[in-house]
Design brief:
45% of the residues lie in helices and 14% in strands. It is α/β, with parallel strands linked by helices. It folds into 2 domains: 141 residues, Rossmann fold, CATH 3.40.50.1000; 63 residues, DNA polymerase, domain 1 (Orthogonal Bundle). Helix 6 links the parallel strand 4 and strand 5. The termini are close together. 41% of the residues are buried.
């Protein structure tokens, strides 16, 4: 498995370490509205799902109100609360210089995704950034990746690799018919990732170069 011409990345937990801020934001939101929080492992399992869909699944009818609180808290603290994973910038730069077409496929809103990428000088390397607005269906459905392939006219699915940190990412790749790579620098339990059988397991960002 090699010679990928297109490499698409998830954002949170894959390129940028936003997970502590995400967990903190959910904790604040639940405490603010209900006076109690929810298990951290449950919240981690939902990462990769659009915010409204996540909240609707656990508090139907209250998702808009909760999302407003979450976003206000998260966005106020975003720039000081996130970090780039070690080796990610170097990887993206090398892939770009090799002529690989790069893109971001994330379940968060594009506006906030761009803010994170700009923070770490990554924007210029990506041909496109697709947020939750780019597709009607979301991970684990394959539509987000299908829309991404259409954006760069990627005809041959064998040329495409999707890199992510959650089982939802891997299932999205499978449902789109493209190869998948799971990252080991994630908060998702490795056993959960192994259950969905990614094609590649990356121990560090630069490990990806073995497959290009």
């Amino acid at each position: 498995m090699n010679n990928f011409k297109y490499v698409f990345f998830d954002l949170d937990g894959t390129l940028i370490d936003t997970i502590p801020l995400i967990l903190e934001s959910f904790h604040y939101t639940f405490m603010h509205h209900f006076g109690e929080t929810r298990p951290e492992e449950e919240t981690i399992s939902y990462i990769g799902m659009p915010l409204i869909k996540h909240l609707k699944s656990i508090y139907p009818g209250k998702e808009e109100e909760l999302a407003k609180t979450y976003r206000a808290y998260n966005e106020e603290r975003h720039d000081n609360g996130v970090a780039i994973f070690l080796g990610v910038y170097e990887l993206i730069k090398v892939l770009y210089e090799k002529g690989i077409v790069l893109g971001v496929v994330t379940s968060k809103r594009r506006e906030l995704a761009m803010r994170g990428l700009k923070l770490f000088n990554l924007c210029d390397y990506f041909q496109f950034v697709n947020g939750s607005e780019a597709s009607q269906k979301h991970k684990p459905d394959g539509e987000p990746l299908i829309k991404a392939m259409e954006a760069v006219n990627a005809i041959n699915k064998a040329d495409v690799l999707y890199v992510g940190d959650s089982p939802l990412d891997i299932l999205c790749a499978k449902n789109a018919g493209v190869s998948s790579a799971a990252v080991a620098w994630t908060y998702s339990p490795r056993s959960d990732l192994e259950k969905v059988e990614p094609d590649i397991f990356l121990e560090s960002p630069l490990d990806l170069l073995k497959y290009i």
